[in-house]
Every structure is written in C-alpha cells, then in structure tokens.
Amino acid sequence: MPISAIKKLDNSFYHRQRVVTVARDLLGKVLVTSFDGQRTTGRIVEVEAYNGEIDRASHAWSGRRTRRTEIMYAPGGAAYVYLIYGIHHLFNVVTNKKDVPHAVLVRALEPLEGIPVMLQRTGKPSLDHTLTRGPGNLSRAMGLLTLHTGSSLLGDTIFIGDDGYRPKRADIVAGPRIGVDYAGEDAALPYRFYLKGNPYVSGPKTAR
DNA sequence: CTGACGATTCACT
DNA sequence: GTGAATCGTCAGC
C-alpha cells in the first residue's frame, strides 16, 4: 500500500519545550531515509524521551557536555546517532532550543516502504516483526549510522513526516524506559511511549 | 595512554 | 534467563 502524501515536520514541532510531549507526538509519524537513491520509510511505534540535564538516564545529565553529546545542545530538529556496545547504532531526535539538551530515542518502527532494501541491509531473509523492532535493529534497517549525527531532519536525506495517521488515544501506552536501571529514581519515570498491541514494539512481553 | 563500560541483540539453555 | 560480542567514548592518571 503506497503512503499518502507525507508532510515533513518542521521546527515548530521539534523546538517545543516539553520533550515528553514531543516524544508522544512522534508516535504514528513516519521516519524516512533516502541513501544512494534507496528510500526506506517506517511508522514510529515506540519512543523514549530523555529530559536533558535533570534526567539521570540522559547522556546530558547534570549538564554533561562532550564531543559525543554536543549535538544534543543544538537546536531541535537534528539527528543524534551513537554507538552502543560497540555494535549498535541508536537513532535519536534532538528537540527543544539551543543549549537545552533534550532528545527522543526512536525504539521501533513498522516498515512501510523499501522493505527489500531493509532486508538487504539487515541480512534477514524475509519480513517479520524483528526487522525494525528495537533501536539497534531499526537503525540497521534504515541505514542510520553514527556518521549521520548532526544531520538536519528538515532536509531530504533523513526526515520525519506526518501522513495523516492518528493513533487512538487509548492505544498510546506510557511506561518506564528500557535499560536505564542505573538512573536511580529517574528509571521509573513514564517516559516511554508505544502503540498498544503493535507487533514491532520492543522489550519483554511484560513491557508491551 | 589505559581501563571500564554502555539508551542492545542474539544464540543458547 | 543468561552471557558474549565488540569498540567508541570518557574519566583519570
């Protein structure tokens, strides 16, 4: 099924103050990448908000500012892709204004266009729910790498758009983020959002 | 320069 | 449910 017209999200979407709201609003939107003429798209079905300096789970906690995290302090609307465990590339969206290091981790997509390309990139034989389940898997399928850190999401290579799809309010579930046990009390914050019942949502069954 | 470790995934029990 | 993979990043010397 072809996607209807996708309207690219602009600065007014990314520059909002409340990263938790931006994260929730990203559910149902469409992530698009076009590398080497190969376009892949997927609907965002799971996200996590990272609330800057006051969030112990964030790379920018207590104002931490290093070469890697510098992009988080840029104005909203840029990509932040970093490597974890030496293996996986994780795709984040920088939000808020300059010097406020908010970000949203995109954890899962429902594939829409370019599935053959995704299969090629991941080496998987056929489409199943593991293709874009989990932040490492989705980044691989979409061709996202650490070198894409700093890319504007207002351009045509990597962007997020709205195709008119609206998740039902009742289908949006909030819960604690995954893999942030080290973050003390902040580990319990309901900063993870996903679409209930969607097969591409990651985490243990108890967290879906 | 060195060492510890991570916003994960996969194979295996 | 457990453990290994694998390397860039960062704090500390």
Produce the secondary structure layout.
Layout: E1 7-8, H1 11-14, H2 19-26, E2 30-35, E3 38-51, E4 79-84, E5 88-95, E6 102-113, H3 115-122, H4 135-142, E7 158-162, E8 172-175, E9 192-195
Antiparallel strand pairs: 1-7, 2-3, 2-7, 3-6, 3-9, 4-5, 5-6, 8-9
The structure holds a DNA duplex (13 and 13 nucleotides).
Number of strands: 9
Would you tell me the structural class of the helices and strands? Answer: alpha+beta
Shape annotation? globular
Helix share, percent: 10-25%
Q: Which quaternary structure do these chains form? A: single chain
What's the helix-strand series? EHHEEEEEHHEEE
Instruction: Extract low-pLDDT stretches.
Output: none
Q: Please give the alpha-carbon distance between the first and last residues.
A: 27 Å
Q: Indicate the radius of gyration in whole angstroms.
A: 16 Å
Number of helices: 4
- Mean pLDDT, as a whole number? 95
Main β sheet profile:
9 strands, antiparallel
Fraction in beta strands: 25-35%
